[in-house]
Amino acid sequence: MLFGRQERTKKMKKVLVLAIVLSVMWVSSADVCAVNYYVDATGGNDNLDGRSEANAWATIAKVNDYAGNPGFSGGDVICFKRGDTWSNDETLGYAETYVNWGPIDGLTIQDYGSGAKPRFDGNTQRPVFIISIQQLNNLTIKNIDVSGSDTSLERVQIQNVNGVVIDGVDYNGHTGSSIYRRSNCVNIINCTGTIEVKNCHIQNLVRDTWENTVSGWGTEDTVGIHVRHRTGENADVPMLNGSVTIHDNIVHDIYADCVQLGGIQTTNSIYNNTFYNFGEGGIDLKTTSYSDVYSNEIYRGTYGLGGSGGGNSNISMHASASGYWPGYYCEDNTIRDNYIHTSAHIGVRLLSGSPGCKVYRNTFKSIRTSITLYSCPGSEIYSNIFICNTAYTGSGVDQSAIRFCALSTNNVKVFDNSFYLSSNSHFYGIAYEGSAGHGNGNEIRNNIIQMTRDSSTVFPFYYDGEGEAPVVNHNIFYNSSHSNRVNWGGTIYDSTEEAAWIAAGHTRGIFTNPQLVNPSIDDFHLQSTSPAIDAGIDVGLTSDFEGNVVPYGSGPDIGAFEFIGIACLPIGQTGWELLYVDSEELVGEGEGNGAAINSFDGDPDTFWTTQWYEIDLTPTHPHEIQIDLGGFYDICGFRQLPRQGEYPNGMIKDYEFYVSGNGVTWGTAVASGTFAGGKAEKQVTFDCVFGRYVRLVALSEINDGPWTSVVELNVLAVQPDTDINNDGKVNIEDFAVMATWWDDDGGCVEPGWCGGVDFGMSGTVDMLDFTYFAENWLRQAW
User: For residue range 487-536, what is the model confidence (pLDDT) as tens digits?
Assistant: First the structure.
């Protein structure tokens, strides 16, 4: 009995000890749980604890004081009230000296409430300066306004922090300002880990009127978004790990650069931004490598006469001119799928120390010199469109779509581009300046260069005869207003000397009309009778500007577009019906918006979005929509226009697309992948599948949110090009041409197929071709 009592006593003691330990653990964990702190400039009180809206603090000074003692903890959120302004207050993170935030893993500074974003008045104090003295990790600043430029120094400076997110920060230098001091807006210095700047609107980092300072624009590196890394004993060590991402920002009217990266030698991406009206550059990459710059719109307008860094260009890449980061270069960067336009200077400039760069699938328009190549060995320029339709001052090689400068180095490739120069100021499509010891391995192949200027000094291709000559073959050089085609070191080749050009070693050179569909309205597709079809050489490309397979025929085509023959075009949305949708927002977006049927109503101002208004009912991915097209089609692709506006929530990232004949059995996806960021319409093509029902499945969102949204969904189906006379419409004039070939006894043979009227390529023009034609009557537009 005694033994049993002792055992029970031991067990009771163990239970008591365990209970005490658990209670201590619970109390301890409660003490370190993340806390939301509130700051209310008009209704707060610094004597309260700040832990609720009712007990909100009033000042930034109180936040700084609390950060020093007792200090914030990991996961804490500091919330500033919307509609309020903090003027004549302290800088967040600096109070006569740097605030020591202590070792924290996870700190968020953001907004709460309704109304305008909380504003830290940049006219009365520097808004934000946070430096990690100990180890501050994973700092997020979101949805604040730092407008005003009457104080000096950067608006938002973050330094030595590991992991930074700047989200939705707005700045307008003209708000309440009178002095207009120039300083960087977002300045991220010597930070590590994952760095992200997104959804910001930064504007007017300049004087109140352009005319006040036009002569000095760009003479100082005053930047909208600046990320730089220089550490080590000699401050020459770049960022070697982590990543930098800059996306979905609008930055304009900036004294020098909209974005500048310096010393970033790790993965970085810049996408889905709009940059315009800048004094020096839209994007300036200084000793920055492994960049992916895509889906941006960048234009300079008439702004900017200065330039002390990368020079006057929409995008520039170069090693530091100041000698920073010795031994590192600006290499292996990619510029793709951007719209770069409207500049009296340079579109893309690859300066010294920028090897191995790729520039492809971009549209360059209304630029004096679209691309300038300096010391950029191993770089590739391919599948771009160059539209030179605006006259600028300047002469000679400065007025070229692509300029190889005298010190351009070796193994640069220019392949499969389409040029159309219709201005009265451009002299050359490609201008090649050589110099002794340079130019080995440079190749120019498969390009179409068409000009319209009537001048004896104008040439689609110009080589000055210096240094190592480039390889130039399988190109089309044409000028509709003058006979000049090539100036090769002083030897002139005109429209009658195509054979002489080929005999001089330039294989498959063509001097005749490339027969583009309608270059005057920027349509550079090939007509069915174009000499560019199958006339190119294999340079290793597998897709064209639009993603079509290369080669489509017996060989690659010349130019940026592969001729497909049968067109994969949108079918009309009339008669479509919603078969199924997993979620739609019928309340929060207001009357007429949010419903699934908006995704195929033909109206770009309406959209479908999944539920979000009631948080408890917000479903997560995957999301899907199923549509009955009302008839059977040879479906070959789809187009998806993402949600537009300042905050495009729900933009699809990963997707799957299905086609069905009965709307019940879907089988495997006919297409799947990841959409590039950006608000531009996305197009996906695939091998034709016969069906009536389509299903789009969104697997994820571009910013990892739970929503999906679509402005317009269009389905593409095989449709022959029935615009026979290429006038931009299908009408009675095309029918008249078709009638001349009706039931032709001679038979239609490749490659003409009865002037392109035998749409089914059956060997005769018959009822099948008439059916194709009728389906496109007054509908097809090029």
Answer: 999 999 999 999 999 999 999 999 999 999 889 889 899 988 899 999 99
Residue 183's pLDDT band, with cuts at 50, 70 and 90, is confident
* Pair 512, 531: CB distance under 8 Å: yes
For the chain, the distance separating the N- and C-terminal CA atoms, rounded to the nearest angstrom, is 100
Tokens at residue 90, please? 């302290």
Q: What does the alpha-carbon distance between residue 277 and residue 171 come to, in Å, rounded to a whole number?
A: 15
Determine the Cα–Cα distance for residues 285 and 338; give it in Å rounded to an integer.
16
Q: Give which of 54, 248, 384, 159 is closest to 705, Cα–Cα.
A: 248
Spatial separation of the C-alpha atoms in residues 164 and 195, rounded to whole Å: 5
Question: pLDDT band for position 305 (50/70/90)?
Answer: very low
Q: How many CB atoms lie within 10 A of CB 52?
A: 11
Radius of gyration of the chain (CA): 31
The structure tokens listed for 440 are 């080995």
State the DSSP H helix or E strand holding residue 342, giving kind and residue range, or none if neither.
Answer: strand 339-350
pLDDT tens string 3-53: 444 444 454 444 444 444 444 343 333 335 799 999 999 999 999 999 999
CA–CA separation, 314 and 245 (whole Å): 19
SS3 599: helix
Instruction: Give the separation between CA 552 and CA 752, rounded to whole angstroms.
Output: 16
Q: Report the run of H or E that residue 659 belongs to, with start and end.
A: strand 654-660
Do residues 77 and 37 touch, judged by C-beta distance below 8 A? yes
Ramachandran sector of residue 353 (left: φ over 0; alpha: ψ -120 to 50; beta: rest): left
Closest CA to 536 of 509, 513, 571, 575: 509
> Could you tell me the two tokens for 64?
């700084």
Q: How many CA atoms lie within 13 A of 53 on its CB side?
A: 6
Q: What are phi and psi of 641, to 5 degrees?
A: -95, 115
pLDDT above 60 for 213: no
pLDDT digits (tens, 9 = 90+) for 697-739: 999 998 889 999 999 999 998 766 676 766 656 778 778 887 8
Residue 127, C-beta contacts closer than 8 angstroms, at least 6 positions apart: 91, 92, 120, 121, 144, 146, 155, 156
Contact 690, 697 (CB under 8 A): no
Query: What is the rounded (10 degree) CA torsion for 222, 227, 230, 236?
Result: -80
CB distance 635 to 684 below 8 Å:
no
Distance, CA of 380 to CA of 718 (rounded, Å)? 33
Structure tokens at 631: 């008839």
In the block, tokens 């195509």 appear at: 498
Q: Is 46 helix (H, G, I), strand (E, B) or coil?
A: coil
Q: Which residue has the tokens 């979005």?
A: 609
Q: What's the pLDDT at 353?
A: 85
- Which of helix, strand or coil describes residue 662? coil
CB 559 within 8 A of CB 534: no
- Does position 477 have pLDDT exceeding 80, yes or no? yes
